[in-house]
Structure prediction request, 676 residues.
Amino acid sequence: MVSIKDIAKQAGVSISTVSYALNGSNKVTDETSSKILAIAKELNYVPNAAARTLKKRESKILGVFLTDFSGDVYGDLLSGMKAVCNAQGYDLIVCSGKQSHRMLPERMIDGAIILDHTFASEELMQYADRGHKIVVLDREMDHPNINQVLLDNKAGATLAMEHLIEQGHKKIYVVTGPEGSFDSVQRLKAVRQVAEREADVEWIEITGDFEKSGGEQAADQIVQVYDGPAAVFCLNDEMAIGLCDRLADSALGVGQEIDVIGFDNIELSKYVQPRLASIDYSKRKWGSLAAEQLIKIIAGEPVDHERIYVTLVEGGSVSGPIPSDSVISMRNDRAVSY
Amino acid sequence: MVSIKDIAKQAGVSISTVSYALNGSNKVTDETSSKILAIAKELNYVPNAAARTLKKRESKILGVFLTDFSGDVYGDLLSGMKAVCNAQGYDLIVCSGKQSHRMLPERMIDGAIILDHTFASEELMQYADRGHKIVVLDREMDHPNINQVLLDNKAGATLAMEHLIEQGHKKIYVVTGPEGSFDSVQRLKAVRQVAEREADVEWIEITGDFEKSGGEQAADQIVQVYDGPAAVFCLNDEMAIGLCDRLADSALGVGQEIDVIGFDNIELSKYVQPRLASIDYSKRKWGSLAAEQLIKIIAGEPVDHERIYVTLVEGGSVSGPIPSDSVISMRNDRAVSY
DNA sequence: TTGTACGCGTTATCAA
DNA sequence: TTGATAACGCGTACAA
Prediction:
């Protein structure tokens, strides 16, 4: 592997001169400098990242930690992050799984963005205490080295509930996420708040898991006890889709006997029939904002926690209780600002 | 940041003793060793990755390079890679975009898996020449430091074409990928081979781009010239879905006037109505095999190029030309081994 | 057990 | 001014 030493030898100068030349310092004559650059190019010199990182105590790499690599949410989110990172001279790497956590304390990366509920908050807190910079997208944490960029779950869940209630629903099933999920807890809290405010609305909570299977199981439960028009608010789209799938095998029609609304407005939701009503937000913006915040706290700029706003997307999966004998027409998607 | 030096000071030993103790060498007394370990834990010592990488000349990190972070193909593919990497003591990071290429020559990663047609082969060849280890999933390259793990595109395209022909189709549109795409070229070659063999089959090539919009444009073209039963083989599912979407706005029904088959069998394909026929393969296996091969060539073991086998998945989107007045029944998905 | 050279690049200090 | 010397960052591993 060719190092600055080789270049120095070839150019007949010292390694420091080479380093200065390569970094565009004005401590070297243009003449020597261009000679050195030429030799570097000729030898295909590439600096060693480990050496640079070791000395400069920064890698110019940011890491994002995800629960897994699948998931429809991630595409735009990551593009947004990457765009900001690259514009600011950082590279972005995507990691998943406990093994990769070491990247942060070992200083392979200059900071981390967390969207992985399996990454323990205690662990994050330790890292923050040791000076590592972190942005969390999936929990609340207060620490000078941690910044939050959270979805406005409360607004989203409220929008969804109000939409169902406006359509005339009096009985609403709510399918939750897994126990530890911050998003689930937040959304559920808002659901309860809205429901408690409306005296004539009954709501039933069903424990889910944010996965398709959870929605399917919820469907089974609902079909068994069905006794009249009802709506289901699945706290994420994946469960909503599982639920719709399963309902398709039953006598209950989505957007007819049962209305369904989700949360996240993932790509797939546009393709289910009828179109799934959901809560939308800009995943790209979420990602770019997270990256911006991380870069700021790395630079030592103090920043406040941020929030990502949400909108309601209507769909044929919600059309009011028992449309009696009228034909159910597919609506166009309309985004309603909150 | 606490380093071995701090531990050495606290323990009253030399840094080399600390290093040996931390690495479980038997060159240190159990007594001193456990004492050192205790102090290390107490001080929250974490080794510095840059220093270790610099000295050992390996990072134990593999990188996978993708064109973008979206794409339904990637979930299982990456899980497969990660599983193998972790089992073998490696970490996996996911990168995208030209900026991140530097990770390889700068030796931040020990090897790379490429699934990104925008990553120039010449560039890869240079890296290979300089000793970097690479596995390519999207092109053919011959070099001792490069291994191929490719889809069996020929088999897949042949299966798809034969399926359409078996159903009685005589007129087949083929929507291709973008110019430079290896997969597109390979699949198209197989298409031609099959079509040329069948004297009474007419085939028409339409240039696409492997994106939804390409399928939509192809649909427009086909609708304009439609003059009787025909089938469309989209060289990937994304285009097939775009095409189906657009056809839904026309008078031509998918699985009725027009049969459609795709390639990749992405998650979404299960949700379009009628279910999209496609060519399936194990993305997880593809990923795990790629990782295995990369780790092998890093270890200096010589390996042969590998191939991922494919199967046909039938769907309601293909049901034979003009089903006349009979009702088209949704078929179950059946996987047919090739 | 320990001293020390080494991996590679950066940068402060000092000499020509 | 221009450029060389050397310390440094941190961990590894050989020689003593």
